[in-house]
Design a protein that fits this description.
The protein is built from 17 helices and 12 strands. It is of the alpha/beta class and 381 residues long. It folds into 2 domains: 127 residues, P-loop containing nucleotide triphosphate hydrolases (Rossmann fold); 239 residues, Arc Repressor Mutant, subunit A. β10 and β11 form a beta hairpin. α5 packs across α6 and α9 crosses α14. The longest helix is centred in the C-terminal third of the chain and has 19 residues. The protein is globular, with a radius of gyration of 22 Å. The two termini are 18 Å apart.
């Protein structure tokens, strides 16, 4: 059993007050498993409801405190799984929170955009929100030493870190699992809740983005290739972000004319999902995208660490029209840091234009020798 960092954090939060715990995250990353582990030692009586069960839909969306009170009567905690299925769930949870202050509530959801729309405003000041992602190196570091992690590194670059994969040793079975995730789960919320008019175009867009990780993405070019409008591409990318499939980095600039900020770079939250989309599970030695996988891997693992620590960080890339570039830039607490990623043990110096324009900024090369220092952000989780 790999212990999730949020297990401890949510447990501690539950001891402090009775605010609603909202746990977001993509399908199959372990939200339900995490909550069940939390509840194993809960001293009170628990009501567990999966919102896919339509028997509860009418009551949970009723806005009737009488009906809601009858539903939870005699229970100390309500665990609502797949909460995005319930109409007006935020208002109904607000009623429970306001009228039954001793009742603890945990709600999980697989689509941030839908769950947030229904919960964020009604539960302002009444909820703690957490985003769960695939297993992070910051979580594995609690049970694996650096040598063991290095042995698994190339496997993570190819198959990613969905929890179920850690119990599968066969490469083909891992590939089959990821392809099933993409086929059966990945686009389910996006296509249904996002009201997507052209589902095949959405899938084609995700595949094009998978081929372009680490590269600047032109919305106009994507629109031309897919033969859909620019506005549709923008809205589809936004949906893919809100469904925890991709995230984007913008170009960093202090308004210097020579810096490029027009296009974003897009990365995947999980490399196994990315590789399933392009149907390529070859070993690193036989790939031509190893450097891009390395870049994506380092950035998303750094994000996991910082997210679980609740650290606020602004993230960018940097490039000039003359071709100077830095893979990844962070700005936090007034401190600017640039990072260049090398899969081998090579180290590089920062571009002179970076040093000239940002003399106060730090710069480091991240390679296979020091990547754990970068990913774990040099401190205990």
């Amino acid at each position: 059993m790999i212990r999730r960092h949020y297990e401890r954090l949510i447990f501690e939060q539950m001891q402090l007050d009775n605010r609603v715990i909202v746990l977001y995250g993509p399908r199959q990353v372990g939200k339900t498993t995490l909550v069940r582990l939390l509840l194993e030692n809960f001293p009170g009586k628990v009501l567990t409801i999966n919102a896919d069960d339509t028997d509860y839909e009418q009551v949970l969306s009723s806005r009737s405190m009488q009906q809601l009170g009858q539903l939870v009567s005699g229970y100390d905690l309500l665990f609502l799984d797949e909460a995005q299925r319930v109409p007006d769930i935020g208002i109904n949870l607000k009623l429970l929170y306001d009228h039954l202050p001793s009742l603890k509530i945990i709600a999980t959801g697989s689509s941030s955009f839908e769950l947030a729309n229904k919960i964020q405003e009604p539960l302002t000041g009444r909820a703690w929100t957490f985003q769960l992602m695939p297993i992070g190196l910051c979580e594995l570091a609690e049970t694996m030493n650096p040598f063991e992690m290095n042995l698994q590194l190339e496997d993570w670059l190819v198959f990613g870190a969905y929890p179920a994969l850690f119990a599968i040793e066969n490469r083909q079975l891992k590939a089959n699992y990821l392809q099933e995730i993409v086929r059966a789960y990945l686009f389910k919320d996006v296509l249904t809740i996002g009201n997507v008019k052209y589902p095949p175009k959405m899938r084609d867009l995700a595949r094009l983005l998978a081929f372009q990780i680490g590269s600047e993405v032109s919305v106009n070019e994507l629109a031309n290739r897919l033969q859909i409008s620019r506005e549709t591409v923008v809205s589809y990318i936004d949906l893919l972000e809100k469904a925890f499939i991709v995230f984007r980095l913008s170009g960093y600039s202090r308004n210097l004319r020579k810096e490029i900020v027009r296009h974003d770079k897009i990365y995947f939250y999980d490399l196994g999902i990315r590789n399933a989309m392009i149907e390529n599970f070859s070993i690193i030695a036989k790939r031509d995208d190893g450097g891009k996988l390395w870049e994506n891997f380092l950035i998303v693992e750094r994000i996991k660490t910082q997210t679980y620590r609740r650290e606020g960080v602004n993230r960018y890339f940097w490039r000039t029209y003359t071709g100077a570039e830095i893979d990844y830039v962070e700005e936090s607490g007034g401190q600017l840091q640039g990072f260049d990623f090398k899969f081998n043990l090579k180290t590089v110096r920062p571009p002179q234009s970076w040093t000239d324009n940002y003399p106060e900024a730090d710069f480091r090369t991240v390679n296979r020798d020091n990547y754990l220092d970068f990913v774990l952000a040099s401190g205990e989780i």
